[in-house]
Specification:
The complex is a heterodimer of chains A (428) and B (265).
Chain A lengths: L22 E2 L2 E2 L3 H6 L7 H8 L54 E5 L5 E6 L14 H9 L2 E7 L9 E6 L2 E13 L4 E10 L1 E11 L4 E10 L4 E10 L4 E10 L2 E10 L5 E10 L4 E10 L5 E10 L5 E10 L7 E10 L5 E10 L6 E9 L3 H8 L5 H17 L5 H19 L1
Parallel strand pairs in A: 5-7, 6-8, 7-9, 8-10, 9-11, 10-12, 11-13, 12-14, 13-15, 14-16, 15-17, 16-18, 17-19, 18-20
Antiparallel strand pairs in A: 1-2, 3-6, 4-5
Helix pairs in contact in A: 4-5, 5-6
Chain B lengths: L2 E13 L2 E14 L3 E5 L6 H9 L5 E9 L2 E2 L5 H7 L1 E4 L6 E5 H13 L5 H14 L10 E2 L5 H15 L3 E5 L7 H16 L4 E6 L12 E6 L2 E6 L1 H10 L2 H4 L5 H11 L1
Classes of the chains: A alpha/beta (428), B alpha/beta (265).
């Protein structure tokens, strides 16, 4: 078992590597070693080798080579120097990475249409692990410590009327573990809303299985109280011709770190991943996503938008898109836009695109972080609109692009109101 | 009856090479019901005058005054000027992503009038004004100026002029980039607004073409940040024939610009 790996193409990666080995202007010429390794999306050979190698060895610098394991012990204690933790203030994780997660998990209350099945199951349920393997220590810690899981199943060919609403209410500051599995069976169509509220210190694993021809929208709302700490791994596995829409909205909480992923396992599938975040003074809102184009002819589109205001408001967006050698005909685009409203806030934005085949329909990424555009402001004010109203109009418009994607009127209204409250805070 | 009075206006901008004076003592008085055309070669300061009246932060007034019925316009913020009754139809209207035209128009109208317009009549007014300017009804659902063509942007500026009913309208090269049909539509819009009898117009243009459709009462020729000649509509006719050439000799720095402009025209 070798751990010798070749640095793969990392376009836009904040890599200290001074060169891109094996990459020419024509595209990447893979070393045979790596080419053989890049296969299955969820547990590729390379991945397995690392995970079952007990965490020894140097992980591949490609996103595909990240250590994955159900065992906490396979992940080394965090130092903050790790690539995927370098932006996260570990001290504020309140033990999610160090303690046994024995606290009371947020209570789960599900409101669902009649034909959707909601179960509470034990650790040994066969559906546990069907869509995800932890990719970091905090996620693995939750996996080891959760006692029961909520499984939501939309049966085959069911078109769920109205959304499945999952209210997760924090039960205090004891570090806790949570587990939810969402299964959208073949040709089903549904919308699932994960609504996080209250005070919690919780590491959460959300497994999402989108079977062949299914259409699933998952909306994860983080409207926690100010003292909440939340790490959420939301991993989706997509079948043939599946359509998956994932929307992350992070507004509340002291530290929120959401790591969504979409892994294509069969051709013809589509993933749309959208995010909206609004960080106030002192808040740390982080989102790291991964789109794994492991098979041919799949589409992905990613757009995250954030606004920041106040001292030490900090947002992080890292978007990893991997187009494997097999993924010919891939069409992908990812973008992140941040609007910094006041001094003292910081937005980190890192789009990473790894391309192992040139035979694709399209691949693009974009990132822009800026202040208010004075010309926008001038135009609106020149029509009599006072400055603070003009600012709100622009920020609202900026974030509305994501809210409009939700298509659940009640939630759109709620989030519009939430954004208004955030904006009202700007004026104070 | 209102009066917009500009007296001995000096305006400069900050450039990488230092401060540059663009307007070098401009005086102008416009009253309700009057149409003043300001003409001049590129770089003569016409657009600077327009932006300064509206209060664009890039332009620094170093001397002189602008008053609206005696009130100090220069002391007002950009939005206060608009609410006081000044309207600038911009040369390059900016796109404002995420803000729908409907929302924008209603917000602006509310700000200018100090109260929300009555929904039923407002919607009707907007529809009618759009139809007259031959703007598609679906524009209201689109974001402000986003993806509009040059001509569409100019029509939407005039739409705002008609809806907001300002005391004074400053049209900054509204005619440039328009084909003849669009020019007629836009001119008719300005004439309609003018015909209501409560507005004075400052029409800034490089070409005489628009003056066939909007008749000026006064024509002022700008060269190098100053008014070098003033007259009635006949002055525009003369410019049409002779161009800006004859101002070139005495006008120092504007010489080349004027000659170029004439060559282009």
């Amino acid at each position: 078992m070798t751990d010798i790996t070749t640095e793969k193409a990392r376009i836009g990666a904040p890599s200290a590597q001074p060169f891109i080995n094996g990459f020419t202007e024509e595209g990447e010429s893979l070393s045979p070693l790596n080419a053989a390794e890049s296969k299955s999306p969820l547990a590729g050979e390379a991945v397995k080798r690392h995970s079952h190698g007990g965490g020894v060895g140097v992980p591949d610098s490609s996103r595909a080579g990240r250590l994955t394991s159900y065992k906490l012990a396979d992940f080394k204690p965090l130092t903050g120097m790790e690539e995927d933790w370098r932006f996260t203030p570990l001290k504020r994780l309140r033990g999610l990475h160090t303690e046994v997660l024995g606290g009371a998990a947020p209570s789960v209350s599900v409101t669902a249409p009649d034909n959707v099945i909601v179960e509470t199951v034990g650790r040994d349920d066969r559906r546990i692990g069907s869509a995800a393997i932890p990719e970091d220590r905090v996620s693995a810690n939750a996996w080891e410590n959760f006692t029961e899981a909520t499984v939501i199943t939309v049966p085959a060919e069911v078109q769920a009327e109205g959304e499945v609403s999952v209210l997760l209410t924090g039960q205090g500051t004891g570090a806790a573990a949570q587990h939810v599995v969402i299964v959208a069976e073949k040709f089903s169509k549904s919308v699932v809303v994960l609504d996080h509220q209250g005070t919690a210190v919780v590491s959460e694993n959300i497994e999402i299985l989108v079977e062949d021809g299914a259409q699933l929208t998952v909306i994860s709302l983080q409207e926690w109280n100010d003292d909440a700490v939340h790490a959420s791994s939301q991993q989706a596995k997509l079948g043939r011709d599946a359509k998956f829409k994932h929307i992350v909205v992070s507004l509340g909480g002291d530290l929120v770190r959401v790591t969504p992923s979409a892994r294509f396992t069969a051709p013809g599938a589509e993933a749309e991943m959208f995010g909206l975040y609004f960080a106030d003074a002192g808040q740390h809102l982080e989102q790291r996503l991964f789109v794994d184009h492991a098979v041919a002819n799949c589409k992905s589109n990613v757009l995250y938008k954030g606004a920041l205001q106040g001292r030490n408001a900090h947002t992080v967006w890292v978007g990893d898109v991997l187009i494997r050698k097999e993924a010919e005909g891939t069409d992908t685009y990812e973008a992140n836009r941040n609007l910094v409203l006041t001094d003292g806030a910081r937005a980190d934005s890192v789009p990473n695109l790894e391309i192992e085949t040139g035979l694709i329909a399209g691949a693009g990424h974009a990132s822009a972080t800026g202040r208010f555009d004075d010309e926008h402001l001038f135009y609106l004010m020149a029509r009599g609109i006072p400055e603070e109203v003009a600012r709100r109009l622009v920020v609202r418009g900026f974030l509305n692009e994501i809210i409009q994607k939700i298509k659940v009127p009640a939630i759109e209204e709620r989030l519009t109101a939430a954004v208004e409250r955030e904006l009202a805070a700007t004026d104070n | 009856m209102s009066t917009l009075e500009i007296k001995d206006l000096h305006v400069s901008i900050d450039t990488e090479q230092g401060t540059k004076e663009i307007l070098k003592g401009v005086s102008l008085t416009i009253r309700t019901g009057e149409t003043h055309a300001i003409m001049g070669p590129n770089g003569s300061g016409k657009s600077t005058l327009a932006s300064t009246i509206a209060g664009h932060p890039r332009y620094n007034v170093t001397a002189g005054t602008i008053t609206l019925d005696g009130d100090d316009v220069l002391a007002m913020s950009v939005d206060e000027r608009a609410r006081a009754g000044l309207f600038l139809a911009m040369q390059y209207p900016v796109e404002v992503p995420g803000v729908s035209m409907t929302n924008f128009l209603r917000t602006a109208k509310t700000a200018i009038d100090g109260e929300a317009p009555k929904l039923r009549t407002w919607t009707k007014d907007v529809k009618a004004a759009m139809a007259q300017l031959r703007i598609d009804a679906d524009f209201t659902q689109r974001n402000v100026n986003e993806g509009f063509s040059g001509g569409e942007k100019k029509r939407v500026e005039i739409l705002q002029l008609e809806l907001f009913k300002p005391k004074f309208a400053v049209l900054d090269e509204t005619d440039s980039g328009l084909d003849v049909d669009a020019l007629k539509v836009v001119s008719e819009g300005v004439n309609r607004a003018h015909a209501e009898g409560n507005m004075g117009t400052l029409l800034i243009t490089h070409y005489t073409r628009i003056l066939r459709y909007i008749k000026p009462d006064f024509v002022h020729v700008f060269v190098d940040g100053q008014v070098v000649e003033e007259g009635g509509p006949e002055l525009a006719d003369r410019l049409e024939e002779e161009g800006y050439d004859r101002y070139a000799t005495g006008a120092g720095a504007a010489t080349i610009a004027a000659a170029d402009a004439a060559a282009q025209a």
